[in-house]
Design brief:
The chain is mainly alpha-helical. It has 9 helices and no strands.
């Protein structure tokens, strides 16, 4: 380490150091502060955007609660599709659309809510599969069910697969799917009733063939 005998030598050394390195240090400080302010600006912008989306969602939801008109919520979904609130609003719009037998609107809204890998997205995928079944779009329903990620929904996935297969007349495959659902929900009377329906449908099919 360099030693200095006098105060003058120390001052001269400091002057040399700043002459050689001062520009770099100042530039680094400016960049560092710029990055800090940029990060703070980014955080403030994100927080502000979330607050605005939250307020708009509450306003749209209040309008729907008063009038049951889905237009405000639909507009919110279109304007805020990149926020988590859009999925919630889309689910509400879809539910109302199903009540009005407007399955195409329900399908479009649930497609928005089904994006991503959250539990809300999985619920939307299950509901979207049901809409596909309602429209006899069986292949789309199966494809949608195969994208559900959460193991907690395994019973619903298998039950819906059973519904699709039953509607297609694939009774053996439907029975297998329902039995898988029963593994998750042993004693579920609805699923047992669906298994009984398969047995009845088979009996009817045999009788019809015999008459021919």
């Amino acid at each position: 380490m360099e030693r200095f005998e006098t105060e003058e030598q120390q001052i001269e050394a400091i002057k040399r150091f700043w002459k050689e390195n001062g520009t770099v240090i100042i530039l680094g400080a400016v960049l560092g502060l710029g990055g800090l302010w940029g990060w703070r600006y980014y955080n403030d912008s994100v927080i502000s955007a979330k607050e605005s989306a939250s307020q708009a969602y509450q306003t749209s939801l209040s309008s729907f609660a008063e009038t049951e008109d889905i237009q405000a919520l639909s507009a919110f979904v279109n304007d805020n599709s990149d926020t988590g609130y859009a999925a919630l609003a889309a689910m509400i719009v879809a539910q109302q659309a199903v009540l009005e037998d407007d399955f195409e609107t329900a399908k479009a809204q649930l497609s928005v809510a089904a994006k991503g890998k959250s539990e809300i997205a999985d619920v939307a995928k299950l509901r979207l599969a049901k809409v596909h079944v309602q429209l006899a779009e069986y292949e789309q329903a199966i494809s949608q069910l195969e994208t559900v990620n959460a193991p907690a929904f395994a019973d619903q996935v298998n039950e819906l697969k059973g519904d699709v297969l039953y509607a297609q007349g694939a009774y053996d495959e439907a029975r297998a799917a329902y039995n898988l659902a029963l593994v998750e929900l042993p004693g579920n009377q609805t699923i047992k009733m669906k298994l009984d329906n398969i047995a009845y449908a088979r009996t009817q099919a045999v009788s019809s063939n015999s008459e021919q």
